[in-house]
Amino acid sequence: YQTKLEFALKLGYSEEQVQLVLNKLGTDALINDILGELVKLGNKTETDQTVANTNTSVIREASSIESQRSESPLQEDVTEDGDNLRPIVIDGSNVAMSHGNKEVFSCRGIKLAVDWFLERGHKDVTVFVPAWRKEQSRPDALITDQEILRKLEKEKILVFTPSRRVQGRRVVCYDDRFIVKLAFESDGIIVSNDNYRDLANEKPEWKKFIDERLLMYSFVNDKFMPPDDPLGRHGPSLDNFLRKKPIVPEHKKQPCPYGKKCTYGHKCKYYHPERGNQPQRSVADELRAMSR
């Protein structure tokens, strides 16, 4: 017994394992038989230990994920992430005329747009409107809900661009220049359906900024609706477009229905998870490469 025990201990087995094997085979068993049983017993023990460790790690990961969910839900990130949201600069004239079907300067449209961004958590919202819009409504320049302009000005959201009269003629400063300049300097978002082509041709940096930071919109009755894909179907989502640092993961392309059997290679417009970021050659290209 002592010889067999010392032999097993030298191989790294414990005395408990040796006793289990001897109880099963008997004390007269040959060393080769004992060694075979010890190998089986060792493999079984390692497997059980691996399963136990795996289960423990899974439980720990699950509990950590649950704790993260409970501590920082997505809804709180959306409403309490004001510091990560970009400043908003609204083209007041464009929004008001759009809400008024290009016939009436509807101040209510400006209020609807401002409220939409404030409800999302944006703290820095600025509206530019020409100062002459404070004048009384005329048949050739109809204005509705004009008191909204005064209210937004008191809340330091709306800014009137300068205008004055010189010998009976109105001199108006270009409000679009105020809009683009403030948005560019504050690294914000321009809310307008205007393309600002004249200003884009003035400075290359303004052109790039207008191309990347212009947020278009639509009005459905009294509902302000910006697009979910401001820069097109392959661009960022609206949530990430309005943030300085995106926190909502972008949706991947639709998986290819043919999977690994797809013969389009890198020309396939669908998503192939097995390729990673590398384009995959078509089947024909693979056969040509093999033949060479």
From TrEMBL:
GO annotations of cellular component type: cytoplasmic ribonucleoprotein granule; nucleus
Pfam families on file: RNase_Zc3h12a (PF11977), UBA_6 (PF18039)
Transmembrane region(s): none
Start and end residues, zinc fingers (C3H1-type): 250-275
Keyword annotations of the record: Endonuclease, Hydrolase, Magnesium, Metal-binding, Nuclease, Zinc, Zinc-finger
Molecular function as annotated in GO: hydrolase activity; mRNA binding; RNA endonuclease activity; zinc ion binding
Region entry Disordered, spans: 59-80, 273-292
Residue ranges with Basic and acidic residues bias: 283-292
Domain C3H1-type: 250-275
Signal peptide bounds: none
InterPro entries on file: Rege-1_UBA-like (IPR040546), RNase_Zc3h12_NYN (IPR021869), ZC3H12/N4BP1_RNase_Reg (IPR051101), Znf_CCCH (IPR000571)
Protein family membership: Belongs to the ZC3H12 family.
Protein name, entry field: Putative ribonuclease ZC3H12C
